[in-house]
Write a structure and sequence with these properties.
The protein is of the alpha+beta class. The protein has helices at about 35-45, 140-150, 160-170, 175-180, 230-235, 240-250, 305-310, 330-345, 420-430, 430-445, 450-465, 465-475; strands at about 60-70, 85-95, 110-120, 120-130, 195, 200-205, 210-220, 255-265, 290-300, 325. Helix 2 runs antiparallel to helix 3 (about 160-170), helix 3 packs across helix 11 and helix 4 (about 175-180) packs parallel to helix 9. It is globular and about 80 Å long. The protein starts with about 35 loop residues before the first helix and ends in a 9-residue tail after the last helix. The structure holds NADPH dihydro-nicotinamide-adenine-dinucleotide phosphate.
Length: about 475
């Protein structure tokens, strides 16, 4: 070994003689191609970015733990939930949805709320948002929806026409649009918002009995929001406001915490509930299915390296452990494919081997090779199954539980099309001041729409949710509620 610990080296470990002056023919140049240290330095720099996430590009992350505070073992056999007091390490990534990696934090947008539990039975990812519902309920609409949130192909500007055209033609979005335009559409910080699994999942106990569940993380910091004006001001002064807030709170020992609750629905209720409980544009009323406490999440450690931990963290709603299974929710079913696929493209086929994603549980399988396979790649162990050489074997007790399906294979919508009751219920639970701000936020955004046809169509939806709601938006826009309502 000729290099000492403090020597600057190339990426292949050789000492670097000069890192300030490139090698040139004479002191004026030109530069010589034989300066491979220069070539490597410039070439590696060009490759510093992996593709940013198409959605949820701007985010902040933190490490912490989850502690079980209530016995839910009669509902799920998931080992990390098996006893009160049990702690599981986790990593969380919060994010905005539509903006690019450098965009402002304090904008009106849902927030991603993704949690990776490093359980003894493998990783469990709970990849939700700060809202209990979503804009659409079938994954086939997702690329179109996101196009409307992104930039116009000619002007490269955000496009209110596209936003409201799509929403007005997709009335299932009304509930989420109402939440987004309400006070909770701009959280004061990532610490001051709730989190939701949003979809329905299935919990299965040791006897193989299942229940449908929905997750709610309730902030123990309390809900706090920014007004439209407050958010706009902060976006100019400090676009990284939420990122900085989370980092600094944890750095000074003010650890943010959330209580986790579930709503539990017996499997058979799904057939008779007053709407389809798998429809992610709906909440289950807490009067029908009250919140049941599960545990508490504490974030107590900042990442040591943003790129290695936050940017390379890969979450997927399909990253499940025994005792937790998907539901037929059509949006969830699409996400089971799309998230892992995004990571295979963005980070690589072996993304699960990176330190931030690697399970604490041992991994034994027959996957081999692929780009950036930086571990021992299974060495000389058996690389196919079935085999006679003692390779890892399946455990039938961990099969996903069977459930009956019926109907014809066809492209069909959910049976229930009431997009109005729950949006109206939310409007009616708001105070007068909250309603005024909701309407003002909507009017401020819809004023930018160039076609009256789009505005009138959307006003009809607000009116159907609650006549007062529709009338106030129409008045704010200087329009009348259309006759046909
Ligand atoms: P409940 O009274 O049982 O629940 C009301 C829920 O609304 C609580 O979770 C409460 O959360 C939340 N909430 C209160 N104020 C606001 C607000 N300003 N903005 C957004 N959410 C708020 O009634 P239902 O379960 O029958 O639901 C009524 C409406 O409440 C729904 O249509 C839905 O829009 C909204 N909602 C329902 C949720 C659910 O899981 N059922 C979850 C979130 C919202 P908090 O304790 O934090 O104030």
């Amino acid at each position: 070994m000729t290099t000492n610990k403090n020597n600057l080296t190339t990426s292949w470990g050789a000492p670097v003689g000069d890192n300030q002056n490139s090698m040139t023919a004479g002191s004026r140049g030109p530069t010589l191609i034989q300066d491979v240290h220069l070539l490597e330095k410039l070439a590696h720099f060009n490759r510093e970015r992996v593709p940013e996430r198409v959605v949820h590009a701007k985010g902040a992350g933190a490490h912490g733990y989850f502690e079980v505070t209530n016995d839910v073992s009669k509902y799920t056999k998931a080992k990390f939930l098996s006893e009160v007091g049990k702690r599981t390490p986790l990593f969380v990534r919060f994010s905005t949805v539509a903006g690019e990696n450098g965009s402002a934090d304090s904008v009106r947008d849902p927030r991603g709320f993704a949690v990776k539990f490093y359980t003894e039975e493998g990783n469990y990812d709970l990849v939700g948002n700060n809202t209990p519902v979503f804009f659409i309920r079938d994954a086939i609409k997702f690329p179109d929806f996101i196009h409307t949130q992104k930039r116009h192909p000619v002007t490269h500007l955000k496009n209110p026409d596209a936003v409201w055209d799509f929403w007005s033609l997709s009335p299932e979005s009304l509930h989420q649009v109402t939440i987004l335009m309400s006070d909770r559409g701009i959280p004061a910080t990532y610490r001051h918002m709730h989190g939701f699994g949003s979809h329905t999942f299935k919990w299965v106990n040791a006897e193989g009995e299942g229940v449908w569940i929905k997750y709610h993380f309730k902030t123990e910091q309390g809900i706090k929001n920014l007004t439209e004006e407050g958010g706009t001001k902060i976006a100019g002064e400090n676009p990284d406001y939420h990122t900085q807030d989370l980092y600094e709170a944890i750095e000074k020992g003010d650890f943010p915490t959330w209580k986790l609750y579930v709503q539990i629905m017996p499997l058979e209720d799904a057939d008779t509930y007053r709407f389809d409980p798998f429809d992610v544009t709906k909440v289950w009323s807490q009067k029908d299915y009250p919140l049941i406490e599960v545990g508490r999440m504490v974030l107590n450690r900042n990442p040591e390296n943003y790129f290695a931990e936050v940017e390379q963290a890969t979450f997927s709603p399909g990253t499940l452990v025994p005792g937790i299974e998907p539901s037929p929710d059509k949006m969830l079913q699409g996400r089971l494919f799309a998230y892992a696929d995004a990571h295979r493209y963005r980070v690589g086929a072996n993304h699960n081997s990176l330190p931030i994603n690697r399970p604490k549980a041992e991994v034994h399988n027959y996957q081999r090779d692929g780009q950036m396979r930086f571990d021992s790649n299974g060495g000389g162990s058996v690389y196919y199954e079935p085999n006679s050489f003692g390779g890892p074997q399946e455990s039938p007790e961990n099969k996903t539980t069977a459930y009956p399906v019926s109907g014809s294979a066809d492209s069909t919508a959910y049976d229930h099309n009431d997009h109005y009751t729950q949006a109206g219920d939310l409007y009616r639970l708001l105070s007068e001041e909250e309603r005024t701000r909701l309407v003002s936020n909507i009017v401020g955004s819809m004023k930018q729409v160039t076609k009256d046809e789009i505005k009138l169509r959307q006003i009809q939806h607000f009116y159907k949710a609650d006549p007062e709601y529709g009338t106030r938006v129409a008045e704010g826009l200087g329009l009348s509620v259309p006759q046909e309502v």
